[in-house]
Write a structure and sequence with these properties.
Largest sheet: 7 strands, mixed
Distance between the termini: 34 Å
Order of helices and strands: HEEEEHEEEEEEHEEH
Number of helices: 4
Oligomer: single chain
Length: 179
């Protein structure tokens, strides 16, 4: 695990010394299919179609910390979440950009999963990845909650720029990679 952190820490140090932040690009979207299954769409600017360290992290949304577990997390009683706990999945290394069910990343990614692998009420989620090159030129992410996904009209995806038709997202992602 330490070996995988070295390039990330080196890149973070380089960015902090130079005062630069990676550009945020519109390369991630989520949507709900006709069966009600949430999906992830990841696009890459890399010639090989790769992304670095994609992950989904869900945390108890602000303002719900003092709520009873039933209120904060749905109808099933559960233990309160510790401050550092999260639900979702995480990966290391480079992976091919893909479309997949939000809580079922490709098996070849060997994702580490935590907590319930379904959307939880009162949780805020972030789906994100980084530039696959060592340049740390860009990152991509979208934040959302279960209500936002449920409210999406058919044929729309949710991006960091808001809801839009899926074709518009594809166009936006292609443009982001040209510029």
């Amino acid at each position: 695990m330490r070996a995988s952190l070295v390039p990330v820490l080196a890149g973070a140090l380089l960015l902090s010394v130079t005062g630069c932040s990676p550009e945020q690009r519109p390369l991630v979207a989520v949507y709900v299919d006709q069966r009600g299954v949430p999906y992830a769409l990841l696009r890459s600017c890399d010639d090989d179609g790769r992304v670095r360290g994609p992950g989904l992290r869900g945390t108890l949304a602000r303002g719900t910390e003092g709520a009873a577990p039933d209120e904060a997390r749905g109808s099933a009683p559960a233990e309160p979440l510790a401050e550092d706990s999260w639900t979702g999945w995480d990966t290391r290394g480079h992976h091919e950009a893909a479309d997949f069910p939000l809580f079922a990343p490709p098996s070849s990614w060997s994702a580490e999963t935590r907590g319930p692998q379904s959307l939880q009420p009162a949780h805020s989620y972030e789906l994100a990845f980084a530039d696959p090159d060592d340049s740390y030129a860009y990152t991509a992410s979208v934040t959302f909650d279960a209500r936002e996904l449920a409210a999406l009209p058919t044929g729309q995806v949710l991006t960091g720029q808001g809801a839009m038709p899926s074709g518009a997202f594809e166009d936006l992602a292609r443009q982001a990679c040209r510029g």
